[in-house]
Design brief:
Layout: H1 2-48, H2 53-63, H3 71-86, E1 98-99, H4 101-106, E2 109-111, E3 118-130, E4 140-141, E5 153-168, E6 172-174, H5 194-204
Antiparallel strand pairs: 1-5, 2-6, 3-4, 3-5
């Protein structure tokens, strides 16, 4: 009787723990999905503000400064930084250097207390293996610690997105960040044949 009671009780405890883990996982997934929905709304709002050719030119010029980030993420950074400027949290309307929390720490900077980050899309990747790379249906996804077979090729592909946060340098404290070199107009006469050489390259590229 006593042993039977212990068995039933243990099963109930295990079941309760399992349900608790499932509930926690569902809550994390729900919070992540809510943040992704929020990002989509912000992105839609950012695109809706680009109503003229001049607006698009400004957006493209801004995106060119962040070549390692997607155009969607640069738009998200842009609109969130403008909102931070209007709220008085940053000194200027245009961001300069943008990085994640740990990236700033590696650069000797610390995010200021109370400065909220800018939410962006971060890629979620997975490893895929195939013994016949030319056949799209032959690729299979590898588990977290699963090793590929000897005759298989492994590639990493984006399988989704998750919310992540970045901060502008004006939201951090630390040593001054060195300014990147900027182009300067040359003084004096151009070297002989420079114009003709540039014109030939432009024509060759159509």
């Amino acid at each position: 009787m006593f042993l039977a009671y212990l068995t039933v009780t243990d099963d109930r405890v295990i079941s309760a723990e399992g349900r608790s883990r499932m509930t926690a996982t569902e809550e994390v997934r729900a919070k992540r999905d809510a943040k992704l929905d929020e990002l989509h709304e912000k992105l839609t709002g950012a695109v809706e503000t680009l109503v003229s050719g001049r607006d698009w030119a400004r957006a493209l010029a801004f995106a060119a400064r962040f070549r390692s980030r997607s155009f969607n993420n640069t738009l998200l950074i842009w609109v969130q930084h403008e909102a931070a400027f209007e709220a008085g949290r940053v000194p200027g309307p245009v961001p300069s250097y943008v990085a994640g929390y740990r990236q700033w720490q590696q650069l000797g900077q610390q995010v200021q207390k109370g400065q909220p980050g800018y939410m962006i899309f971060a890629p979620v990747t997975g490893r895929f293996a195939s013994s016949n790379p030319g056949d799209p249906s032959s690729w299979r996804r590898l588990g977290p610690r699963e090793k590929h077979k000897v005759n298989e090729v492994v590639r990493t592909k984006m399988v989704g997105a998750r919310p992540a946060y970045v901060w502008d340098v004006t939201q951090t404290e630390g040593d001054p960040i060195p300014e990147p070199p900027a182009p300067k107009l040359l003084d004096g006469e151009a070297p002989q044949g420079l114009w003709d050489g540039l014109a030939m390259q432009v024509e060759a590229l159509g």
